[in-house]
Amino acid sequence: MEGPHRPKGRSEAHNRILPIADKVSALTAWRCVMRLTVLTLCAVNTSLSVPLGDSSSIPVAMFAPPADVPDTVNSVDGVSDSSEINTTRLAIIGGTLAVGVTTIHVYQANGWWKYNAAAFHFQEDLTYGLWVDKLGHFYAANVLTFVLSRSLQWANFSERSSLWWGFAGSALFQTYVEVEDGFHTWGFDRVDFAFDIAGAFYPLAQHYVPALQVFNFKFSYHASDLLNNPGGVGFRGQKHLMMDDYEGQTIWLSFRMNNILPSSVEPYWPDWLCLAVGYGARDVATPDPYPVVFLALDYDVSRIIPDHTSFLKLLGEALNFIHFPAPAVRITPSAIWYGFYF
Questions:
Q1: What local confidence, expressed as pLDDT, does residue 112 receive?
Q2: Span 65-93, mean pLDDT?
């Protein structure tokens, strides 16, 4: 998943980078970061159609979406009864976010960056993790946008503005991770970065293009033998999280079949039952890794849990990022049927 990366086998000669090249590469990266920041803020500002201000009490009306775009604002009963942003909740969100970012930074700094400083450089690895790593970048950025946007809705932001700010926060966090990698052995991976931005933007795309709501990305995990194995990724003795265990991860693309099936069939297919295609990798720490592809039943949890309250609605949406155990068949490299696969 998004975040840490293993060493990518660079030779000593390849690691010799001229100081001038270092400065040029670093300057280029930081220009990209600043441009992304400016463009994101401009996009948010344009979408709100008002100047960005520093007021602690902001009318909700300035965050209202166009009349033709459905919008929701979270409150106890799902309907906002306030005309202003809830600054207390916004402060809670800010504090929680600061603690979360600090915790992630400490983990990555101690586990991946502490002893691996290098001159800033770009480096791509299109074979690492057989693209489970890349898909993990997309998925993690997607989830982060969701978390940030729903948090802001809790503070009385409109759905549209919270999605834009969620995208901005997710994209900037992923950029920070890639820039840090650029100053360490792993290097700034431009392909990873592209998946980061695409994943962060996907909830916005689903908002503006409702047809995309048929397709949802999910995740399942069971620990593989590589977790905390000195022969796996990282360094001897290093403790890993599941985000580092690419062999144990499966990334799923779930299809809401009721939105796809012909109208004559749709009444007979439960709204909550989906089909999903899963992708994973095996033997990633060996010279001969191979991909695995699954076809499985899946559940639309948002249509199983009643949405009578905003909390239950949020719970259903959040759990919908997980692929729960379901009947499945492995398609490649050979067919294997599973009563339940997670």
A1: 74
A2: 60
Phi, psi of 16 (to 5 degrees): -80, 110
Express each pLDDT in 85-122 by its tens digit: 999 999 999 999 999 999 988 888 877 777 788 899 99
Give the chain's end-to-end CA distance (angstroms, integer): 17
Q: What is the DSSP string of 235-294?
A: -TT----GGG-GGGEEEEEEE-GGGTS-TTTGGGS-TTEEEEEEEEEE-TTSSS-EEEEE
| Res. 243: pLDDT tops 90 | no
Please determine, for residue 143, whether its predicted confidence score (pLDDT) is greater than 90: yes
CA–CA separation, 179 vs 170, rounded Å? Answer: 14
Pairing mode, strands 273-282 and 290-299: antiparallel
Give Cα separations from 253 to 85, 230, 264, 280, 308 (angstroms).
35, 32, 25, 12, 27
CA-CA distances (angstroms) from residue 48 to 53, 61, 168, 281, 332?
A: 12, 10, 14, 42, 47
Cα dihedral 85/86/88/91 (nearest 10): -40
Strands 290-299 and 249-255: unpaired
In angstroms, the CA 24 to CA 27 distance is: 5
How far apart are alpha carbons 99 and 226 in whole angstroms? 29
Residue 312 has pLDDT above 50, yes or no: yes
Parallel, antiparallel, or unpaired: how do β-strands 215-221 and 290-299 relate? unpaired
Task: Tell me how far apart the alpha carbons of residues 81 and 90 are, in angstroms, rounded to a whole number.
Answer: 17
Residue 51 scores a pLDDT above 60 = no
Q: Which residue, 66, 75, 100, is CA-closest to 169?
A: 100
- Out of 16-25, 78-87, 299-308, 333-342, least confident range: 16-25
Q: Which residues contact 150 (CB under 8 A, 6 or more apart)?
A: 74, 162, 166, 314, 317, 318
- Other residues' Cβ atoms within 10 Å of the Cβ of residue 96: 11
Question: With contact defined as beta carbons under 8 Å apart, do 321 and 310 qualify?
Answer: no
pTM: 0.76
